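Task card 7
Instruction: Convert sequence to structure tokens.
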Amino acid sequence: MAEKRNITRLIFSISSLVDLGQEVTSAKSFNERMKTALYVVTGMFSVPKAALLVYNSNQQRLKLLTHKGLKDTTWGNIHVKAKHIKSFSKNEPYSLSKIKTNFLYNPNTEALEKFHTKTFIPLFAKDEFVGAICLGKRLSRPSYLRSEKNVLKVVANQIAITLHNSSLFRRLTNKVNENKKLYENMRHIYNDTIKAFAAAIDAKDVYTKNHSFRVAKYAVAIAGELGWKEKDVEAIYVAGLLHDIGKITIDRGVINKGEDLSVSELSEIKRHPQISYDILSKINFPWKDLVHFVKHHHERIDGRGYPDSLQGEELSDGVKILAIADAFDAMTTDRPYRKKLSLTEALHEVKKCLGTQFDRRISNVFFRVLQKEIKGETKEAQILPHLDKGFNPTVITSLLETITAELSA
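Output:
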């Protein structure tokens, strides 16, 4: 008979442990899981009143996490010092009489009584004290059999691991958030520094104020329409800001001279992409292609560009994007050698140079972006805000539709 009871008790304990395991690993919220876990435990041992507490090491106290059957929860804290923790055996149930001999009892008598504590179980995971379970009086026998204490220890270990994992996740989340804020701050500083460089580059040429910023914006619009990943879009943006950094080393008089450049002066101007590359390649950027975008932004599809006379498929999409963004801004702003073109004239010029200076596919994407911006179909316009507003939207839209239709045919 006794053997049959033991088998029945064992089956019940195993079944309850399975239930507990399912609860602590379920998709419910953490508090829900812990409440249900405590209810499983109290059901296993016929305990109508119980409390689960989590340890706050900074405050050196156990704080009430969840409970069963308690009316007064205002006594939600139990003060626990290092000497108390050292005196505990890990996940070992303590009877009330044993607790009274521990340093823990006297400063916390009132709280332990409010929790109706008859059994106290300190919870440890990986040698770290993480919480405690206070169990009230049992409805069956008051004491626990050795087999029941063993089950309680398994239960305590399972709940302790869950509390520990939750604490680790919370700390990790806080650390991630802190690092994210730090990263964002560093990123802002980084971007501000790059923008300052871009402003310094543009200041070299009286005709190109904000040129680098506009080129960066145009390039971002095209890359975004192509479906580039965020990191790659960021690379083309920074490349746009820094593509003319090599001009810093070129004499201001040569840059602002205009059309009447000598052969040697023209040669000096044409050196700026290589100089830009030489400067930027010494910086450990997080974007591997950035320096190549910068170096080749004056290359052409027909191979007549510089510095390396690359052509066709030798040019990456990033280079093709930067090439048209740079040239389009040059067309639509005043330069020493000519007045700016109207938007209609600039679009015709781009169309005329398809397959020679500009890539057809990338140019088509550029036309499509501009078309969407004029129609108000983009979340944020990147090109339109930087153009003169004196154009007729209907005329430009019609022109763009004609061009894109021809390119798509």
